[in-house]
């Protein structure tokens, strides 16, 4: 895990981004937890180590990490963006009760993108697939 974080930090440095302790901590937290936290959850997790850090600092750093291609912002219509440091091709399944998000892999959907381009004349820049259901924990509580 440390090498993955270091690789990401090296990539940022190569693009001229200054690596502050807060940026390092935010990126490390996202890569270690992989639980798609909100900015507030990231702030609460890191606040004991960075008591002078504000929620705005977290948002600004997340914005920079998104622009650098290191983090994806996930929006699910509940007005609270979640953040994912896994920028590989993968998809999400979302629990309708507790909001937990899990990653899953599926063969590429490039054929669907090509078909959509041919049928509509659009140039496809990407896609998002998300499934909805009830997670195992919520099923057991029911």
What would your notes on this structure say?
The protein is α+β, with helices and mostly antiparallel strands and 142 residues long. The chain is built from 6 helices and 5 strands; from the N terminus they run ααααββββαβα. The protein has helices at 2-14, 21-33, 39-46, 55-67, 110-120, 136-141; strands at residues 72-74, 82-84, 91-95, 101-104, 130-133. Helix 1 (2-14) crosses helix 2 (21-33) and helix 2 (21-33) crosses helix 4 (55-67). The protein is globular. It starts with a helix and ends with a helix.
Assigned CATH superfamily of the largest domain: Winged helix-like DNA-binding domain superfamily/Winged helix DNA-binding domain
Q: Would you tell me the overall average pLDDT?
A: 89
Helix/strand-derived class?
Answer: alpha+beta
CATH class of the largest domain, anyone? Mainly Alpha
The major beta sheet can be summarized as: 3 strands, mixed
User: In the CATH scheme, what's the topology name of the largest domain?
Assistant: Arc Repressor Mutant, subunit A
Total beta strands? 5
> Looking at the structure, what is the overall shape?
globular
Helix content: 40-55%
Q: Give the low-pLDDT segments.
A: none
**Order of SSEs:** HHHHEEEEHEH
- Tell me the fraction of residues in β-strands, as a range: 5-15%
Strand order of the largest sheet: 4-3-5
Please tell me the total number of domains.
2
Distance between the termini: 36 Å
C-alpha Rg (nearest Å): 17 Å
């Amino acid at each position: 895990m440390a090498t993955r974080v270091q690789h990401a930090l090296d990539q940022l440095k190569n693009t001229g981004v200054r690596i502050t302790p807060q940026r390092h901590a935010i990126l490390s937290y996202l890569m270690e937890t992989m639980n798609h936290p909100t900015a507030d959850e990231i702030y609460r997790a890191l606040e004991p180590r960075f008591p002078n850090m504000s929620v705005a600092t977290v948002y600004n750093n997340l914005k920079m990490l998104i622009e650098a291609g290191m983090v994806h912002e996930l929006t699910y219509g509940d007005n609270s963006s979640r953040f994912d440091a896994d920028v590989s091709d993968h998809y999400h399944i979302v629990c309708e009760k507790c909001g937990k998000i899990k990653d899953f892999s599926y063969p590429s959907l490039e054929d669907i993108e090509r078909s959509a381009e041919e049928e509509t004349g659009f140039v496809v820049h990407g896609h998002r697939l998300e499934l909805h259901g009830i997670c195992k924990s919520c099923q057991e509580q029911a």
